[in-house]
Write a structure and sequence with these properties.
- It contains 6 helices and 28 strands.
- It has helices at about 5-10, 150-155, 195-205, 220-235, 250-260, 295-310; strands at about 20-25, 35-40, 50, 55, 65-70, 85-90, 100-105, 110, 115-120, 125-130, 140, 160-165, 170-175, 180, 190-195, 210-215, 235-240, 260-265, 270, 275-280, 285-290, 320-325, 330, 335-345, 350, 370-375, 380, 385-390.
- The protein is elongated and about 95 Å long.
- The two termini are about 25 Å apart.
- The structure holds adenosine monophosphate and magnesium ion.
- Adenosine monophosphate binds near residues 290, 292 and 293.
Length: about 400
C-alpha cells in the first residue's frame, strides 16, 4: 500500500465528532444527512396517467368509445369505465379502476360529439403504476449522504420538511508567512500576496461550511502559539497554510507537539504537496497545508475534504473518471503518486496544459481535472488510460 492509501484508510477510521441538528429542508443543500430517509407512502401513490389523453381498456382501441367525463390532476375519477367507454384524462391524474391504457390526445380522433377513437394502434400504455418508483417503507436516501440537487427533490417528495443533519464544525483559516500581504496591498520587494486564504475559504464554502475567523500571521513562534490557542477556543478545526514543512521558520509541527496534539500524518505521499499535517487533541483537529498554492489546493481536495467529511459522518467518495491520455506523459522519479492539472475535454480525452509545479496556481485556471499518475509509474503513452478527478 502506498502512503496515500494508508492515509485514506486512516481517514476512514476517524470518529464522527459533531452533533446532530434538525434544520429546515430549504437549508439542506450540501449538508450531511444524519438519518435514514424512508418513504411514508407509495410513489406514485395511485395509478397515474403519464399523458394528456383518454383512459380505456387496451382491447377496445380498435373501435369507437363513449367519453364519460374529464379527469383533471388532483381529483379522483367518478365514473367506472366499462367496455367501449373511456374518460378524458390529464397528465398526473388518477387512472380509473380497470383501465389499462391511456392513449394520447394527439392519437385521438373525435367521431361524434361524445365519442372518440384511437388512430394509433401501436400506442404505449402511458400509465405510471402505484409504487413503481418506490414502496412505502423503502429506504430512499442513506444516512451519511451529502444532500445534493436530486436529494432535495426526494426529501420534499417524502415529506421531510425538516431533516436531521450533522452540525457543522467552526473552522478558522490561518495563513502563515512573514512574506504575505493582503490581496488589496501592493507587495514590497520580497513579499507576495496571500492567495491561499481565499482558496481554502472557498473550498470550505463549496462544502457549505462556515469560517469562524480568517487570520494572516507572521512566522513568529510566540505569536503563532498565542493565536493557535485563542483560535482553538472558538473553533473545532484550524486550517493552517504554510509553515508545515522543515524550514527554519516552519513552526506548525513544533507547536502541535508542544500543545499535545497527536499527529496522524505529516507526509501525504503525493506530489505536489508532500508536507501536510493532520492532528487531533480531544475533539479539536488541526490541518496544516503547504504554503505553495497548488499543493494546498491538492492537499485540500485529496485529504482535508474527505477527512472533514468523515468527522461529520458523511459517506464521501470523490468522482474519478478513467480517461484516455492524448499526449505522452513522462517523469523522472516515480517514487510518489503525482497529481497533474490537465484539460479534460468534451471528447473524453486528457490534454496537456503548461504546469511548472507547486507554486503555479495560474495553471489551474485552464485545468478542468487533476490527473493521477500512480506510484511507480513513470511513463504513460498517448492512447493509454489514467484516472482524472474533475475539478
Ligand atoms: P511554506 O510552506 O511556508 O514553506 O511556503 C512555501 C511557498 O508558498 C513559499 O514560496 C511561500 O511564499 C508560498 N506561500 C506560503 N503561503 C502562501 C499564501 N498564503 N499565498 C500564496 N503563497 C504562499
Ligand atoms: Mg512559510
Amino acid at each position: 500500500m502506498s502512503k496515500f492509501d494508508d492515509i485514506l484508510s486512516l481517514i476512514k477510521q476517524l470518529p464522527e465528532v459533531y452533533a446532530t441538528e434538525e434544520i429546515a429542508l430549504e437549508d439542506a443543500y450540501n449538508r450531511v444527512l444524519r438519518e435514514e430517509v424512508r418513504a411514508d407512502m407509495n410513489m406514485p401513490p395511485f395509478h397515474k396517467s403519464a399523458m394528456d389523453g383518454y383512459a380505456c381498456h387496451f382491447e377496445d382501441l380498435g373501435g369507437e368509445m363513449e367519453v364519460l367525463e374529464v379527469i383533471h390532476a388532483g381529483m379522483m375519477p367518478t365514473q367506472t369505465v366499462g367496455r367501449n367507454q373511456c374518460s378524458k384524462i390529464m397528465t398526473g391524474a388518477a387512472v380509473p379502476d380497470g383501465c389499462d391504457c391511456v392513449f394520447k390526445v394527439e392519437d385521438s380522433e373525435e367521431v361524434t360529439k361524445n365519442t372518440v377513437r384511437c388512430i394509433n394502434p401501436r400506442t404505449a400504455r402511458n400509465i405510471c403504476y402505484t409504487g413503481e418508483d418506490y414502496r412505502q417503507g423503502d429506504v430512499l436516501i442513506k444516512e451519511g449522504t451529502i444532500v445534493s440537487v436530486p436529494q432535495m427533490a426526494v426529501l420534499a417528495g417524502a415529506g421531510y420538511a425538516n431533516i436531521k443533519v450533522s452540525a457543522r464544525p467552526g473552522i478558522t483559516v490561518i495563513a502563515t508567512g512573514s512574506e504575505l500581504v493582503k490581496p488589496h496591498e501592493k507587495p514590497e520587494p520580497g513579499q507576495i500576496r496571500n492567495s491561499n486564504s481565499s482558496q481554502v475559504i472557498t473550498q470550505l464554502r463549496k462544502m457549505n461550511l462556515e469560517v469562524v475567523e480568517n487570520l494572516q500571521l507572521k512566522d513568529d513562534y510566540d505569536l503563532l502559539t498565542q493565536k493557535f490557542n485563542e483560535a482553538l477556543e472558538n473553533s473545532d478545526i484550524l486550517i493552517f497554510t504554510g509553515g508545515a514543512s522543515v524550514g527554519d521558520f516552519d513552526f506548525i509541527p513544533e507547536i502541535l507537539k508542544e500543545q499535545g496534539f497527536k499527529i496522524y500524518w505529516d507526509r501525504t505521499g503525493f506530489k505536489p504537496g508532500n508536507p501536510m499535517t493532520f492532528s487531533q487533541n480531544g475533539n479539536k483537529f488541526v490541518i496544516g497545508l503547504s504554503g505553495n498554492p497548488v499543493s494546498s489546493l491538492v492537499q485540500f481536495e485529496l485529504l482535508a475534504k474527505p477527512a472533514i467529511y468523515q468527522l461529520m459522518g458523511a459517506k464521501y467518495t470523490p468522482t474519478r473518471i478513467m480517461a484516455t491520455l492524448n499526449f505522452d506523459y513522462q517523469r523522472k522519479k516515480a517514487d510518489r503518486l503525482a497529481i497533474v492539472p490537465v484539460f479534460f475535454g468534451n471528447e473524453g480525452r486528457i490534454e496537456e496544459i503548461p504546469f511548472h509545479g507547486s507554486a503555479h496556481i495560474n495553471a489551474l485556471i485552464s485545468a478542468t481535472a487533476l490527473m493521477e499518475i500512480p506510484l511507480g509509474v513513470s511513463t504513460i503513452n498517448k492512447g493509454e488510460t489514467v484516472y482524472v478527478r474533475p475539478l
